[in-house]
Design goal:
The complex is a heterodimer. By secondary structure, chain A is mainly α. Helices cover 70% and strands 3% of the residues of chain A. Chain B has two domains: 236 residues, no CATH class; 312 residues, TolB, C-terminal domain (Neuraminidase, 6 Propeller). In chain B, strand 12 and strand 13 form a beta hairpin. Chain B is elongated and about 110 Å long. Classes of the chains: A mainly alpha, B alpha+beta. At the A-B interface, helix 5 and helix 13 of A face helix 7, helix 11 and helix 15 of B.
Chain lengths: 324, 704
């Protein structure tokens, strides 16, 4: 970790988020209202759940660019199934199974066929999006059917006064923390991300572990998708081809999880989510143009990657070949 | 020969198995799979779509292809250097909007517009290059971010200028020429992209910058270690990429003249698919303009045909994704397993029958004896692998060694040694020319001359390429031994053209006749192959008539004579057709006969195996090289024979107790000096009946 004195990157980002929060609170009249804070946290929680999915993969030295596309397509199919009369549990099961299958396919391509993760998942995103459009649904936006209105609770309800998405975010974070900290697979995953060759030499089943990364990512992505669908009562499959997935990467990298794998944990994701959430929300309230928001996000992501490179320098002698 | 043997022999004559391995070893074989895919795509869509091949359809497609292939070429340049540029689509859109703004809003003249647009693209490329090259960020994420930022800039420009662009009328023929004109019957965009492809091809294959790019992509670390400015090289590739993308955008602007929000969206995925489908390797090092062109045509045809067949955009991206995955999967697996596959199919033994081996017992001329027992060792343990030995007029000994030196032992006691010249490679056969300079065959390098002043001059490292040989046989892989004709022509043997020096046992396993004898004429500087398809030609020695030479074929266990002048010019005649062992060097003896070294003695098992090519192939494929049948090369002897092929005497060291491992011998002033390629000494034997004044250089150059 990069340390400025005794500060880690995670602490710096957290401090920035707090500062930004204070700045917005002073400068923007609508920022510190309860409604806005709730809105902020709710929108951020979906990004956070996706961040956990991406974080797990990145810790294992992979990357999952099909996360958002898979989420959109599998949930859109689920909604479509419900609308066409399938019972809710059955539809959910089918959607989840599809999602897990594609996740496993990703993992297989990366672990066994040895396609670089970036390409395997990028191609898979395109493929899944096309598959969905051609076979699974007709419209870009699939609405939540009336007979599943109670799903809305997941996105808009409250549990003990806390919005359910936030509860789910916390639950996913807690689950991810337990997985990484206490389960054997979780520790293997970190080992694989830290040094694949060493992990293999010591007897870690590296290929199944890599597959597990992508299956987990697909699973958590599906949860995030259901929450998204519940929040806005629809699933817009166009986000599959948008830059949303880079926001997720932004959360992960900004939080301090190095792209070279093996470093960081769930706390980094929470911190990253916080900063991005505050930033996006503040810019929206300030009514900054969408394109300019993109530029700002891009510049911040670039800065995050630069810092990541400075923290985990890639030396000419140690850089891995074909690592792009 | 039994009928079965005859059938086996004809089977291996009729089917040239070795060609498969040679074809697979070619670099251009990488292009074969992409080309096949392209042909398949043309065949499938050509039969499904009516007027697929009509002039209008082709010309329309060609224009679009011109723009698209520029993008793919841009991506290829970056990929070859080991990076990736996802911002090509956005830069394309930027080029489009900038060109339109400059021509219609700013009203600049066309050359200025072109310059401005290209500069814009180069600037985007420079940003990428600085970030990825100099700051060493991860190429994928970095160019992804620049993709987003540039796209946002394009959107801002669109908001500002799209109305003005739509309303403006451009009065410039030059401007429309880019998009609608033709040159030599081809659309301008096609001409431009062909020119760019040619320039890139020449740059990558023939220029220093291009080699640096390829080296960087092949192994960044090694490139850095040999002193290539890796960071600058990478930066340059991104600048090239940005410029080409903007150029494509300019062509697009001129053709359609409209600025839409969806220009260039998703183009990077198509371009990436095309680049990978063409066979450009992810991670760098392998790629060419030809590959980019093939891939771009394939993807262009696929996308376009899908649109024309009226399939939805979903099916389009489904197909694109599947093709990308399949292409990358094939690419990755092929790269990983290619050498394994190649090593399995490259070795292709053929039928070869040796005449029965003469006995080495009893009254045979080859009968075992102990005549090498008194051999004294020179430079014991101080010389590593003297394949050949030669002495000059002042009695100094010259030998080559394993580390690429010519070592000189100084007369008279040969206790002092010095490196006469460091030539590199593996010095093998040697001969003194008339002017006293030493000519050396160097394995892996070619034919070299070392003058008396120790100046090293390359005589030749190539010969004429055969017309119908698949592998490039113009380079010398394993120059072995040489001798010099009275007129100065140098005849030297090249043991095999299919294997490197250290793989010589594999050549025996093949016994195909991969060797040749080559003539280098220093008077004209030309080099020509004179005899081909020899079984590991090794020693060469001029006969005394000045019109012919004797040469030994190691795996064929025979010595033959070739006439290069006189009435029998061009003919080959067997001198000793059936040796009991594997012959190596031949040299003159003082009484007009010849010395021949047998490096090892034949074994019945290997002789039998030579008649069973299938068995040898299975052995090469399934058994570890350590367990193969090898020719014995440790128990040898020295043989003296005359021009008629009569064996005069045989010198053995029974049991190999005093001097094993013999590959050469040289008579000099009543002594025989013995070398061995795996030996650690030079042997010296006093000869009883030899002329005590006779020396090799005298025999060659004084008498005539």
């Amino acid at each position: 970790m990069l340390t400025f004195g005794r500060l880690s990157q995670e602490q710096i980002v957290f401090g920035l988020a707090v500062l930004l929060c204070l700045g917005f609170a002073v400068a923007l009249p609508g920022f510190m209202t309860t409604a806005n804070i709730l809105n902020l946290v709710r929108s951020v929680s979906i990004l956070g759940i996706l961040g956990v999915a991406m974080g797990l993969v990145v810790i294992g030295r992979g990357i999952d660019l099909s996360l958002v596309a898979l989420m959109a397509v599998s949930v859109a199919w689920t909604l479509n199934l419900i609308a066409s009369g399938t019972s809710l549990p059955q539809a959910l099961a089918i959607g989840l199974a599809f999602s897990l299958f594609v996740g496993a396919a990703n993992g297989w391509l990366v672990a066994y066929v040895e396609i670089p993760a970036i390409f395997a998942t990028l191609a898979m995103a395109t493929l899944v999006y096309g598959f969905g459009q051609y076979f699974l649904y007709d419209l870009n936006v699939v609405y939540l059917p009336d007979n599943a209105r109670y799903l809305l609770w997941l996105g808009q309800g409250n549990l003990l006064g806390v919005p359910v998405p936030i509860v789910l975010f916390a639950a996913v974070c807690f689950g991810g923390y337990l997985f990484l900290r206490y389960s054997r697979s979780g520790r293997y995953l970190r080992a694989v991300g830290d040094n694949l060759a060493a992990a293999r030499t010591t007897g870690v089943p590296t290929r199944p572990i890599i597959m597990l990364q992508y299956v987990l990512s697909a699973l958590i992505g599906f949860v995030a998708g259901i929450v998204t669908a519940a929040s806005v009562a629809s699933m817009n499959t166009r986000i599959a081809m948008s830059t949303y997935v880079y926001d997720v990467i932004l959360v992960v990298v900004l939080g301090g999880i190095g792209l070279s794998g093996g470093k960081g944990g769930i706390r980094n994701i929470v911190v990253g989510t916080l900063l991005i959430g505050v930033l996006l929300n503040g810019m929206t309230i300030m009514d900054i143009q969408y394109t300019i928001q993109n530029v700002i996000k891009g510049v911040i992501l670039l800065a995050a990657i630069v810092i990541d490179t400075v923290v985990n320098p890639r030396d000419e002698q140690t850089a891995q070949h074909g690592d792009i | 020969m039994t009928t079965f043997d005859a059938m086996v022999r004809w089977r291996y004559r009729a089917i040239p198995d070795h060609l498969l391995g040679e074809i697979l070893a070619k670099r251009w074989i990488d292009n074969a799979i992409p080309l096949l895919i392209l042909i398949a795509v043309v065949a499938v869509f050509g039969s499904m779509i009516p007027d697929f091949f009509s002039a209008a359809s082709v010309s329309n497609l060609a224009r679009q292809w011109g723009e698209f292939s520029l993008l793919v070429l841009a991506l290829m340049v970056v990929m070859v250097a080991g990076g990736i540029d996802l911002s090509v689509g956005s830069t394309f859109a930027l080029g489009n909007i900038v060109a339109l703004s400059l021509i219609s809003v700013a009203g600049l003249p066309v050359p200025m517009v072109v310059a401005g647009t290209l500069a814009c693209g180069a600037a985007v490329g420079l940003v990428n290059g600085l970030l990825v090259g100099y700051l060493r960020l991860r190429a994928f994420l970095t160019t992804l971010v620049t993709l987003i930022i540039v796209r946002a800039i394009v959107d801002m420009l669109l908001m500002k200028y799209s109305v003005a662009i739509a309303g403006a009328f451009i009065e410039s023929d030059a401007w429309y020429y880019f998009g609608e004109g033709s040159l030599l019957g081809l659309p301008v965009s096609v001409v431009i992209s062909i020119v760019v492809a040619l320039v890139l091809h020449v740059a990558l294959s023939r220029t220093r910058v291009g080699w640096h790019v390829l080296a960087t992509g092949g192994s960044r670390r090694s490139a850095h270690n040999v002193g290539i400015k890796v960071r600058r090289t990478i930066c340059v590739t991104y600048v090239v990429s940005g410029t080409l993308s903007a150029l494509a955008g300019l062509l697009f602007a001129s053709r359609l003249g409209g600025a839409g929000a969806d220009t260039g969206i998703g183009l990077e995925v198509s371009a990436l698919t095309a680049a990978v489908l063409g066979g450009n390797s992810l991670g760098g090092g392998r790629g060419s303009a030809a590959k980019a062109v093939i891939g771009s045509i394939t993807v262009m045809l696929m996308i376009n045909s899908m649109v024309r067949m009226g399939v939805t955009s979903g099916a389009n991206s489904l197909l694109l994704g599947m093709v990308l995955l399949a292409a990358v999967a094939i690419d990755v697996r092929w790269l990983k397993n290619r050498h394994k596959f190649l090593s399995k199919v490259y070795v292709s033994p053929t039928y070869f029958e040796l005449p029965p081996a003469p006995s080495t017992a009893g009254a045979s001329v080859y009968a075992l004896n102990d005549r090498l027992r008194p051999v004294e060792a020179i430079g014991l343990n101080r010389i590593d692998g003297p394949e050949d030995v030669i002495l000059d007029g002042d009695d100094n000994i010259y030998v080559g060694n394993r580390t690429g030196d010519i070592v000189r032992f100084l007369a008279p006691d040969y206790t002092t040694q010095e490196v006469f010249a460091h030539v590199g490679g593996r010095p093998l056969g040697m001969a003194f020319a008339k002017d006293g300079s030493l000519l050396v065959c160097i394995g892996g390098m070619g034919l070299y001359r070392i003058t008396r002043d120790r100046e090293i001059v390359k005589l030749t490292d190539e010969t004429n390429r055969s017309w119908f040989s698949v592998i490039d046989d113009s380079r010398l892989k394993l120059a072995d031994d040489l001798d010099i004709a009275p007129d100065g022509r140098v005849f030297f043997s090249e043991a095999t053209i299919r294997y490197e020096m250290h793989e010589w046992p594999v050549d025996c396993l093949e016994s195909r006749g991969n060797g040749r004898i080559i003539c280098h004429d220093p008077n004209t500087g030309t080099t020509r192959t004179v005899i081909k398809n020899l079984l590991f030609p090794n020693g060469i020695c001029m006969t005394h008539d000045g019109q012919s030479f004797l040469f030994a074929e190691t795996w064929a266990c025979r010595v033959s004579r070739y006439w290069f002048d006189g009435s029998k010019k061009g003919t080959v005649e067997a001198v000793i057709p059936d040796l009991p062992g594997y012959p190596d060097n031949i040299n003159r003896a003082s009484d007009g006969t010849y010395w021949l070294a047998l490096v090892g003695i034949r074994t019945p098992s290997l002789d039998l195996a030579l008649k069973m090519p299938g068995f040898r192939r299975r052995m090469a494929r399934r058994v570890a090289p350590d367990e193969w049948l090898y020719p014995n090369i440790n128990t040898g002897c020295v043989v003296r024979f005359d021009e008629g092929g009569r064996i005069i005497e045989t010198l053995w060291d029974f049991g190999g107790e005093n001097h094993p491992m013999i590959t050469s011998m040289r008579e000099h002033r009543g002594h025989l000096y013995i070398g061995g390629i795996l030996n650690n000494r030079v042997g010296r034997l006093k000869l009883k009946d030899a002329d005590p004044a006779w020396t090799g250089p005298d025999s060659y150059w004084r008498r005539s």
